[in-house]
Amino acid sequence: MPRMTKEEILHLGTLARIKLTDEEATHFNTEIDAILDYVSTVNEIVADYSALTKTVGPVHNVFRADEVTNEPGSHTKDLQAEFPDAQDGYLRVKKILNPDT
Amino acid sequence: MLTATSLREQFLRGDYSPREALEATTSMIKTRDADVHAFLDVYDATSEAEKATECIREMGDQAPLLTGIPIALKNNILVKGKRATGGSKILENYTATYDATIVTKLKEAGAVIVGAANMDEFAMGSSTENSAFGPTKNPHDMSRVPGGSSGGSAAAVAMEAVPIAIGTDTGGSIRQPASFCGLIGFKPTYGAVSRYGLMAMGSSLDQAGPLTNTVADAELVHTIMAGKDPKDMTTIDNTTYEPVSVKDTYTFGVPRSFLADGVDTDVMQAFEAHIKTLTEAGHSVVDVELPMFEKGLAAYYIVMPAEVSSNLARYDGMRYGTRVAGEDLLAEYLNSRAAGFGDEVKRRILLGTYVLSSGYYDAYYGKAEAVRTLMRQELGQVFTHVDAIITPTAPTPAWQFGEQEDPLSMYRQDIFTVPVNLTGVPALSTPMGTVERAGSVLPVGIQYIAPHAGEARLFDIGKRIYDSTVS
Q: What is the H or E stretch that residue B283 is in?
């Protein structure tokens, strides 16, 4: 029976890039515990899954040649229009490399 | 009853036009949608309807098959130049920059896209209560949910605004709202329909399909949308699976022990009555055992959140969508996603992040994938002696708003639909009768499950068993 702590939920929030309020962490903690209890029944079904041969079905990943399929610049304006913050046609974001950290 | 087939007949006879059909749609939306809230956006499609009217006049029965037919699209399907919210605040002001492949195909077939249908946020939910833009109501009883996550699509057809709406189905999101709203809902074989331009939820599970009033309409629309797409490498063609035959009489398998618990008594009675209809029509009905299917829901609530946590990583407020300021880049990610996502989405992302964490992967995701393998093997066995499996689509009729507060109890509503997505087979939900709750007469559906690529068989069954009873 997995049991999580509120700190673990808050840590998961950071890993998932979602800031959680204290109240959210409390109710997610209870709910996720209950869900994990339930889904853990897969362990009873497949006690030793390494014994199962992994099979690839008829549907599997395929790759196409890495070719440019559209005229350069043909979507640029539409995509730029969706930028939350822009300057001179560039997407503006906060500093990615921070010398202080 | 509003159907694409009957509209086309009227168009070809010349006693009705696409322009008039659009007017009827617009007027129905005006009359009912303030209450039902099936639509997030209603488009001005006048010029498309004019073009369709012209096309019918010039080409007659050579006009493409959906010419002038008004349709609604779930709002996780991209239409160039239209808002695509996914039912989420994080995409509240996002405009799609290209057409999904299915949208291109529907437009080429002449369909008139009239609006965007409401949905649970990023297709996560079974009631459409998780939409960031407010719930949709069930046109059969406004105190009840329409089902979900394609609840807006279902309500748009059920309130007779459109004959066809497109939904997406990751764990039952087309079939369950079809059951709750008295409609046909079809989930194709995994890979049958391109997902290019659809917002991904569970990539090993998602498929798009129609909600309609007749099986013939569902077949028509599915046939137009299906096919291999170089832009979606998971799409299949007709050589991928063994052909599945159409027969004079079918053998249906009933997984009795699966149905023994948790199905409402009167839903089970409607199901038994339907079995009688099948045998009276000359088909055979036998009991089957699907012990792995019964464990499918547990595997689903590992696989799906895992894929959700990965697919929704793209909504970070950087290149599009809502960005909430913070002191550094990490804070902007944390803030944007905290403000942009609702509770259910957060819950599933957290759960998915957990089951994919180092050290837990084998215990959860690895085992869930093993369960899927066992389910496929079990299903293959059963399909050697039955042609289709039948279950109620959902264990209950539509419930009242707020009745399902606990996430886990809501998840249990998907028990009969998720095994279909986990194994990738096609399934069709058709109405099988009604039950009564607090004075309301509510529709309930039956689900037919066929082997991979068994689309034609399901449509044959549906047309003979269901369409023949309605006019």
A: none
